[in-house]
Amino acid sequence: MKPTLLILAAGLGSRYGGLKQLDQIGPSGETLMDYSVYDAKQAGFGKIVFVIRKNFEDDFKTHIFLKYKGFIDIDYVFQELDMLPDGKKVPEGRMKPWGTGHAVLVAEPKIKEPFAVINADDFYGRDSFKAIASFLFALDEDNQKTYCLLAYKLKNTLSEHGTVSRGLCYLDKNDYLINIEEHTKIYIENGKILSLTKDDKKYDLSEDAPVSMNLMGFTPSAFKYFKYYFNEFVETKYNDLKAELYLPEVVSKIIKSSSGKVRVLPSNEKWFGVTYKEDKQVVVDNIKEMVDKGIYPKKLLP
Questions:
Q1: For residue 261, which of 179, 141, 152 has the smallest C-alpha distance?
Q2: For residue 66, what pLDDT band results from cuts at 50, 70 and 90?
Q3: What are the φ/ψ torsions at residue 287 (nearest 5 degrees)?
Q4: Helix axes 247-256, 223-237, angle to 10 degrees
Q5: Which of 47-56, 183-192, 254-263, 268-277 is least confident?
Q6: What would the pLDDT profile of 214-226 be if each residue is shown by its tens digit?
Q7: Secondary structure of residue 116 in the 3-state scheme
Q8: Looking only at Cα atoms, what is the longest distance across the chain?
Q9: Which of 66, 181, 279, 294 is 20 to 30 A from 57, comparing alpha carbons?
């Protein structure tokens, strides 16, 4: 059974401004999602499922879904604020989505096979998709609660134009994940990679520290944990209008509760993303370089 790629595309892109998932990056007008879909198909994925907001539906149908018709099977699901446990209503004043953990949960009706999760506005690299596809294809009935995570070297994931948030991964001796530690303000200063804490303390970070970029692999068994921890989140954070349940938080809870285990797959790929407007030209230049080298065709999709 071919795995599915779940693309989280419901974010508003608040720091960047506008719906950056539809920005043209490639030489023939390709988006970053196009490169992920292309790499996923080449790696053996059989279907793409998008998580979107309902008010984006027309734009996505026009600019995204139609272009993939005949290339790979596609489907989509909405992530909306009113998708809450029974008896709960959206708290007054709530505007933010419930987070990437919730985004994965709402896709459950569309996914019955092993699947990988990515952000819509990130470039992960074809070797990363090959690695996670190989892992998912190899899972058997005895390993349905064994998941995986692609870990990038921190130095390959930074922006020159501002701070970034990254999840530092801690591994055991067998390369299984112990914990993900969120660092919300990582930046480069005088050639060093620093993390700024809430109390304004600075910590040096290793350039080779493994970090999560939300490229993770699961089996459908994980959905029950996403549901359990989202219900728990709603009970405890319901009145916090800015709180979100993030994907790495769910993964950490799964590990700590011994409900499942997560194999960390190392990646030497360079991650690209458009966190800030100024990042766009860097991404365009990197894509052009790979096209010039023949890594990608000039026109990506038929």
A1: 179
A2: confident
A3: -65, -45
A4: 110
A5: 268-277
A6: 999 999 999 999 9
A7: strand
A8: 56
A9: 279
Please state, in angstroms and rounded to a whole number, the distance separating the CA atoms of residues 153 and 271.
Answer: 9
Enter the CATH code of domain 4-292: 3.90.550.10
Length of the chain: 302
Closest alpha carbon to 300 in 81, 24, 113: 24
DSSP string, 93-117: T--S---HHHHHHHTGGG--S-EEE
Alpha-helical segments (H) within 15-125: 32-43, 57-60, 66-68, 100-106
Q: Kindly report the number of other CB atoms within 10 A of residue 209's CB atom.
A: 20
Taking the domains of the chain in order of start, what are their residue ranges? Answer: 4-292
pTM tops 0.70, yes or no:
yes
Place of tokens 């989280």: 8
Extract the tokens encoding 292: 């010039």
The amino acid at residue 131 is A
Angle between helices 126-138 and 32-43 (to 10 degrees): 40
